Amino acid sequence: METYFGPEFFKRNREKLRTLFAGTAPIVLTANGLLQRSGDTTFPFRQDSNFWYLTGVDDPDVVLVMGKDKEYLILPMRGQVQEIFDGSIESKKISKISGIQTVLDHKTGWNLLTSKLGRVRHVATLAAAPSYIEQSGMYTNPARRILISRLKKINPNIELLDLRTHLTHMRMIKQSEELTAIQSAVDISVKALMEVSKKLSKYTREYQIETNISNYFGRKGIRHAYQSIIASDEHACTLHYITNNDSLVGKSLVLIDAGAEIEYYAADITRTYAIKPPSKRAQAVYAAVIEVQEFAKSYLKPGVIAKDYEQQVEHFMGEKLRELGLIKSIDKDSVRIFYPHSTSHFLGLDVHDVGDYSRPLEPNMVLTVEPGIYIPKEGIGIRIEDDILITPTGNRVLSNKLPRTLL
Fold first, then answer.
1. Distance in angstroms (rounded) separating the CA atoms of residues 349 and 49
2. C-beta atoms surrounding 294 within 10 Å
3. What is the distance between the alpha carbons of residues 210 and 271, in angstroms, rounded to a whole number?
């Protein structure tokens, strides 16, 4: 498969991080670790986005060490059983990918780093997320917590400097390689959605649509950026409905939210289709969502602050909801009953990519625009989502080849 990222990309990112950080403390970052799925099996590995952004390395538990004029990778300790079943990490390969010449075994690397840490007061790293994020109902990868614990054990007095803000600001502005990868992911996603949209009358269950999308991605040698949402009628009112197993027989609408991932860069596209001739009510709600999306896209340009933009879209959505007879007065609480999520989020290495929403938009930022109206009592949930590139004069719709039609 074609690769979009060479070692120069990762070298450039490391050099920019050094410049932004501007400190003398060593930078120490870790890859993600493997997570147990069941028994002695693991979930498919997904690298820490920041670690990949700086190295291109797709192996677990590798550690990156950067100084002012020195950098090296430390390989994890792997037992014989793991070597037999999972294979070994090839030093020459990850050196070629990352552009980092020095790749050390676990003992040698940690001895060198331990010696350094004993002589410094600070170390720059990425702060660890809580072990459990209550809002998302998920446990987090423990790799950063384990690294920080080890650093503090080596030098209990060492102070940690958090690099998350630096990397967030770097990742918000996409480079040419990133834009090419995102556009390719979008193009493949568009083609997959066009393929299934032509066969809606042939499907009898939601999972059949998901299977067809997966097959299309598989033929291209790529994976999903996230678990697809195939939600018919009332299921579309559950924003992250992923059961995808209900019957489509007798259903009116199906919401399809799917995106491909290319070298960790994501597409995120949603369309709502009519399985049978739509009611006038469904058509009216659909038309309202299209109007809101058009309003939102017209607002996006350099200099706009995302928080201000969201308020403008919220008010416009309120006007449409009032026209539909869903609310009487336009206020946040009333609007959020039928539109409970933001219009846009940043897109990149993560589907919901890192970003500073108080910072004015700049060229080469990529966002989604995904208004929706959800009416559980009527079994209607409609969302339309496109991926948008901010340009010097406004914006460009990366997913514009996918029609926005209900039928």
1. 6
2. 15
3. 14
CA distance 188 to 63: 33
Specify the amino acid at residue 318: G
Residue 369 CA to residue 192 CA, distance in Å, equals 20
Asked whether residue 236 falls in the same domain as residue 373, the answer is yes
Say whether both 20 and 146 belong to one domain: yes
User: Is 162 in a helix, a strand, or coil?
Assistant: strand
Task: Determine contact, residues 190/197, Cβ cutoff 8 Å.
Answer: no
276 Cβ contact partners less than 8 Å away, ≥ 6 residues apart: 251, 252
CA distance 79 to 231: 44
**3-class state of residue 36 by DSSP:** strand
- Report yes or no on 200 lying in a domain: yes
Phi-psi region of 356 (alpha: psi -120 to 50; beta: other; left: phi over 0): beta
Q: At 200, list the tokens.
A: 């809606």
The answer to whether position 280 is within a domain reads yes
Residue 258's pLDDT is 98
Q: Coil, strand, or helix at residue 163?
A: coil
In a domain, 119, yes or no: yes
Segments forming the whole domain that contains residue 142: 7-170
What backbone torsions phi and psi does residue 206 show, to the nearest 5 degrees?
A: -60, -40
- 134 Cβ neighbours under 8 A, 6+ residues apart: none
Q: Is the pLDDT of residue 1 over 70?
A: no
Q: Is residue 67 part of a domain?
A: yes
- The tokens for 212 are 């067809």
Q: Which residue among 119, 144, 170 closes a domain?
A: 170
CB 252 within 8 A of CB 275: yes
Selection from 361, 5, 373, 397 nearest residue 173 by Cα:
361
Q: What percent of the chain has pLDDT over 70?
A: 100
pLDDT tens figures, 58-89: 999 999 999 988 999 999 998 777 777 777 88
Question: What is residue 79's predicted lDDT score, i.e. its pLDDT?
Answer: 77
What percent of the chain stands above pLDDT 90?
94
Least confident range of 75-84, 242-251, 300-309, 357-366 = 75-84
